[in-house]
Write a structure and sequence with these properties.
Distance between the termini: 31 Å
Number of strands: 0
Number of domains: 1
Helix content: over 70%
Shape: globular
Largest sheet: none
Radius of gyration: 17 Å
Length: about 240
């Protein structure tokens, strides 16, 4: 019926469901969209991820930023964005020379290390150095696997929920322009990716609606625990994706 679709109708339906859940997660705790959607959709149909999901984060983060603009913390965002630029360049170079198996395992190891460190270190200082490093790791991860949220969420984990969500949304919105631009310049985004992303856009709106019902329940310690759990799942998902290729 829909011969113009790059994937089957059942794959699009599955994509809509998974994208709705992922959008709800990110718009509730500030990140996690790609962590959930990319590994799951890659198993359903490789064409569904990671690039279409990378494109979908643009409207999601823009809507999140507009929704909680008043809580945005501009301090430090510049250094994170600098790191994202460095990370995007590094990611493009790595995609040209390294196997995806190695890349996925490397990003997973970095995230695991950060999670373990924060289990024993209750706070992490936010300064020019840590913000640039977090941005670099985030930019590299976003470019090679579409998963760049964990380093930034771990950096901002002690902030208020609204501040964390709005700050990460601003960073992601700006960083995605860099990441998508880097992929386009490298010929790593095609028309099929755009068509799939457009088909899944309605799920973003549904996820944002559901998150309004959950935000009030996730604050303080529950938010910090959620960040650690989702970051751990990101590392596990990347590891499994590498092993199942």
């Amino acid at each position: 019926m829909f011969d113009w679709l790059p994937v089957s109708e059942s794959a699009i339906i599955a994509g809509l469901i998974v994208t709705t859940v992922a959008a709800t997660l990110q718009s509730t705790i500030g990140f996690g969209f790609a962590i959930l959607s990319v590994p799951v959709l890659s198993l359903i149909d490789p064409k569904l991820a990671p690039v279409p999901q990378l494109l979908l984060i643009v409207p999601l983060t823009t809507a999140m930023l507009i929704r909680e603009w008043s809580s945005l913390d501009l301090g430090g965002i510049g250094w994170v964005i600098l790191g994202r630029c460095i990370g995007a360049g590094l990611g493009v170079a790595l995609l040209m020379v390294a196997d995806q198996f190695i890349l996925d395992l490397s990003i997973a190891a970095i995230v695991f290390t950060a999670v373990i460190a924060l289990t024993f270190v209750k706070t992490i200082p936010r300064n020019k150095f840590t913000e640039t490093i977090a941005g670099t790791v985030s930019g590299t991860g976003a470019l090679v696997s579409s998963i760049g949220g964990p380093p930034l969420a771990l950096l901002y984990r002690d902030s208020a929920g609204s501040t964390l969500r709005s700050s990460l949304a601003a960073i992601f919105a700006i960083g995605l322009v860099i990441t998508i631009g880097a992929r386009v310049s490298g010929g790593l985004i095609g028309l099929e990716d755009l068509i799939i992303a457009l088909c899944l856009v309605p799920a973003i709106g549904v996820g944002l609606f559901f998150s309004k019902l959950l935000i009030g329940r996730v604050e303080g310690e529950p938010l910090r625990r959620g960040i650690i759990i989702v970051a751990s799942l990101a590392a596990i998902g990347l590891t499994l994706r590498a092993l199942l290729r």
